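Q: Sequence in, structure out?
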Amino acid sequence: MAKSNRLEGKKIAFLVANEGIEQVELTGPWQAVQEAGGTPVLIAPEPGSAQAFNHLDRADKFPVDVTTESADHTQFAGVVLPGGVANPDALRTDGAAVKFLTDAAAAGTPIAAICHGPWTLIEAGLVAGKTLTSWPSLKTDIRNAGGHWQDEPVVASRERGWTLITSRKPADLDAFNTAFVEAFAG
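A: Exactly. Output:
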């Protein structure tokens, strides 16, 4: 993605658990936000750092900017939910993270989720009536939650008054990054 100013002056929330984030699903979108002139902000349940993984192997740690308890959804032009199996599984048990997402969606803030990221959206009750994609193992969970699952590199859903951008896996990052930057730019 070429440098632009599409997100200049906009803060983008990266909502994660403190452990288990798939590193490339954090760093790729983070870089896309920076290249578009935006400011990425890492939000997690606990202060300190968030441990990323390269699949099952520990990778880098990233500093947490704001806790889920103190994060204000009105400060952000968009929300990114990276995947990794453990990350969204832990995040969906954090009430403040779930509330942040429901409040953001209610305000019409666009949300982007990749891989296993939609698990937190399911917990927040946000997939009913939406069309989305994910890692294939989530398709039954998405359907059971009232969503419509598609096997596509990226899906943009504008139903229910807010935009949801989803992708399946790291190989889809280029399409994912382009789609969510466009959505966040307004």
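The chain has one domain: 11-185.
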